[in-house]
Design a protein that fits this description.
2 copies of one chain form a homodimer. Chain A is α/β, with parallel strands linked by helices. Chain A has helices at residues 4-12, 16-22, 30-37, 56-66, 76-82, 122-134, 152-157, 161-164, 172-181, 218-221, 241-253, and strands spanning 24-28, 43-49, 70-74, 91-96, 111-116, 139-142, 167-169, 185-195, 204-209, 226-229. Chain A has 11 helices and 10 strands. The first copy, chain A, starts with a helix and ends with a helix.
Chain lengths: 254, 254
């Protein structure tokens, strides 16, 4: 069972403010927690439901958790009541947010940085993190005004990439200074931008993608070296932000 | 106000079964309904909240609705109670599902058909429809086992493309026969497929994408001409299905 303080902590961590103050987040569900265990993120404690060990996969998971943190057992109903998402699927872990600073990012000869500029939808941000990880991005930089990357829905939609790819939460000033210092050409995704297929790809690129409705913020738009668009022959005016970023990251990194 | 029968109908249309039996669906929210009005889809009736006309956009919308169907006014609270999604945003329309048959699809010299094979998430299917529309796909073919394309969440995620791009709901037998008859090379998206960048693009292609967890179904996999994958240098094992389809549709149609 959980102590009252632990129960209160889990509940509090559904709010961004508490996650930021405490530097902790919630990971929920078998797949997500399996991915978490593949990282070296510090785990605080885990809550599992009694039915988790009905499957062999659950038995393995519990054993792996035991080696990393305290594991508390709850009834299925009590665990569901704790969950921030719809289905915790038998397991929930309180873990420490890994803090990455721009100064610590390792840069190779080639580099692709994905910049998140006020993306609001948790599913979109999770998918963006997953996509950046798939295309070996250097890191993801999350600017103010974006959904919290440690929101449980973002973590789930990222399919584990939140734990593997460095996520840097930073202001625009430090970010753009760092990008220029390290010779990144900064591209902003914009429907009125130059067709990406006509642009030579520099060795180091940062791609900024903006809000689902409004696009890039004015202050970000003012600081990109160029805006780029994806040629589309059809009727839909725009692409979903994660799809657009996927196409651009594919072209930038191949 | 709504009659009891209309209230019951709206409630029933939250279920796939009722949508299929009655051939009707729900469109909710200002943006979605504005897009609906740009199509020639038959509208049955509309329910709007009293506050819709607080904005000029709402006044315009109401006027446009008046010309197409009966419009009933409800309190904000009553309209919210009717909604299938979280926020109907002041307007909800019951409309007729446009039925498209393969035989009626117009084919040009080039053609790209997107085949949906057991995609489950409404947000993913909506994004797939939006993406196919952006890249001027010939149509979307939805195979059994997929989420209903007329689900309100799919309609909303498609950003209006559901109303513009022909959606054909069909069995695999008829579909693959039609695709071969009309000289489409059928590609299946699969992590173990050939790298798409090494494949010449035929004039007519059908791209099949599968379930979020399991990929293409066995029966679909057996019928594709080749499987294709997207080269990825990073750690994430796979891409979100809508992101993967976006990259492939971009490459196929450009």
């Amino acid at each position: 069972v959980l102590t009252r303080a632990e129960t209160r902590l889990i509940y509090a961590l559904q709010q961004r403010k508490a996650r930021e103050t405490k530097g902790l987040f919630l990971a929920e569900g078998v797949r997500v927690v399996e991915e978490l265990l593949r990282s070296n993120i510090d785990l605080d404690f885990a809550a599992i439901s009694t039915s988790l060990e009905d499957s062999e996969r659950g038995v393995h998971l519990r054993r792996a958790l035991n080696e990393r943190c305290a594991v508390h057992e709850l009834s299925d109903r009590d665990l569901n009541a704790q969950s921030a998402t719809e289905q915790p699927q038998g397991v929930l872990v309180v873990a420490r947010v890994p803090v990455h600073q721009l100064e610590d990012i390792q840069l190779g000869e080639r580099s692709a940085v994905l910049v998140i500029d006020a993306v609001q939808d948790p599913g979109n941000l999770g998918t963006l993190i997953r996509t950046a990880d798939a295309f070996a991005a250097t890191c993801i930089a999350v600017l103010p005004g974006s959904v919290d990357p440690w929101n449980a829905k973002v973590v789930r939609a990222s399919a584990g990439s939140t734990f593997h790819l460095p996520i840097v939460q930073t202001g625009g000033d430090s970010l753009f200074e760092w990008l220029h210092l390290h010779k990144h050409e900064v591209w902003g995704a914009d429907l009125q931008g130059e067709d990406v297929s006509a642009i030579a790809r520099p060795d180091r690129v940062a791609l900024a993608v903006g809000n689902e409705g409004a696009g890039l913020r004015v202050e970000t738009r003012a600081r990109v070296d160029r805006t780029v668009s994806i040629g589309m022959a059809g009727r839909a005016e725009s692409l979903n932000v994660a799809v657009a970023a996927g196409i651009l990251m594919y072209l930038i990194t191949r």
